[in-house]
Amino acid sequence: MASKTYSYRLYGYWALKVVEAGTYSVKLRRWPEETKLALNAEAAIRPAKEGTSVSASKPGKSLPITKARLKVQQVDKEIDVDPTQEYAEFTVDLTKGDTELQTWFTLEDKETLGAYFVSVEKLE
After folding, report:
1. Contact criterion met (CB below 8 Å) for 45 and 54
2. Tell me: the pLDDT tens digits for 78-100?
């Protein structure tokens, strides 16, 4: 079996300050929200901007994402994802205070990488 190498291995955590206890939606994304790209989408090449230091990007590669995992406070959840959707969403109850939020996407070959973008919104 051929080995797959991805250069996207981002791990670590986000420092999160929960200002008010409650129920929150946490969305894990691969691409910025404004792109509306699916988790498994290939991103187009960003053109260079003449007269600036912005050079053309490499094309974004499709990744076969099958699961998403979220760890925050006492919550550690993993869910199956539809890779044609823009994000994987978790609903969690959080208490007030400083905490760390960690994320993972699992690929078909069981390799993992961190989510690139995360949004947190209070529901209640």
Report:
1. no
2. 999 999 999 999 999 999 999 99
